[in-house]
Amino acid sequence: MDGFDWAGFWAGVGSFLATYEAAFRIVGVIVGAAVLRWVLGVVIRRVVDRVVSGVKKAQNVEHTVELSASPLHAVRVVQRTRTMGTVLNNLTTWAIVAVAIVLVLGELNFSVTALIASAGILGAALGFGAQNVVKDMLNGLFMVFEDQLGVGDIVELQSTQGPVSGVVEIVGVRVTQVRDVGGVLWYVRNGEIINVGNKSQGWARVIIDLPAPYTSDVDEVQRVLLDTATAMAAEPEYKRKVLEPPEIWGIESISAEALVIRLVMKVRSGDQFDMARALRLRLKLALDEMGVAVPSLNRIVMDGIDAREAARSSRRPVTPPEDSDL
Question: From the Swiss-Prot or TrEMBL record, what is one GO molecular function term (predicted)?
């Protein structure tokens, strides 16, 4: 070992490194990009998992918190968080790959500036040709980030192709899937959505307009309606769904046939439909016990253009006879 030529050895190593310097740099760029992508992926995944696990734990809290955070809201938070995590992962991957490719091409003595200019022109051409797809994706990302809708929400969408209402099943980056009350699954492009009406965010209100005979005792009818709604709101089955005590807003309209009395109840979002059905049944039974018959409101008076249009639309279409001897 004492006679080993260390100077020559290190000179050979230096010559080897100088010869394959570009190759080592390329390998370093690739390894560095892979490590950076792995680190960022771990960070994003941990953040998403922590948010999701926090939401799941929040669903086991006491009654007061359950009032402000319904299961639909929790599903929406989880879905939005996971969507954001997927988007961030994709953006991170593409950004790191693009930078790594540019650095590798630079080490190979390619004209990176000309390549970037060419890629920009190609990207502009593709963006112009696929502008609808880009619009769908951008609109979908904004809807997710802004929490306009989420999985399990009951929504009414106004799109360029017409209105769509139902329960959201999937919120994609490009297409949102909504299943209506008849079971039909609608695929709505995000770029075509103009307005979003969400019935599952925050809170909802049960509104019942109940007609009573014109000659009835209005104060007594209102008292019975309010007592019935208050008793229902106090039942254990419905107590957690009610956010505020029921209210009588008074007479909504007056006609020769009936007085329409409005009863309202503020409830948790998503529960307004079940609560309204149960409340209607109890109000019906209470009015029957009181001896109040709900009057019929079937009279329709039309004149002028409306009457003519209704008459024309109600006529049975006449099918012309088949060709005969003329």
Answer: mechanosensitive monoatomic ion channel activity
DSSP 312: H
CB 75 within 8 A of CB 150: yes
Q: Yes or no: say if 70 and 59 are a contact pair by the CB < 8 Å rule.
A: no
Q: Classify residue 63 by burial, with Cβ atoms within 10 Å: 0-12, 13-18, 19+.
A: exposed
Cβ contact 280:208 at 8 Å? yes
pTM, 2 dp: 0.56
What domains, with CATH codes, occur in the chain? Answer: 13-129 (no CATH), 150-198 (2.30.30.100), 203-290 (3.30.70.100)
For 235-253, write each residue's pLDDT tens digit: 998 988 898 999 999 998 8
Q: What are phi and psi of 240, to 5 degrees?
A: -75, -15
- Give the amino acid at 135: K
Q: What is the H or E stretch that residue 249 is in?
A: strand 247-254
Can you read off the two tokens belonging to residue 174?
């490009």
Q: Which two tokens stand for residue 116?
A: 């970037």
Quick check: helix, strand or coil at residue 23? helix
Is 129 strand, coil or helix?
helix
CA atoms in the 13 A half-sphere facing the CB of 208: 28
- For 155-180, write each residue's pLDDT tens digit: 999 988 889 999 988 877 788 899 99
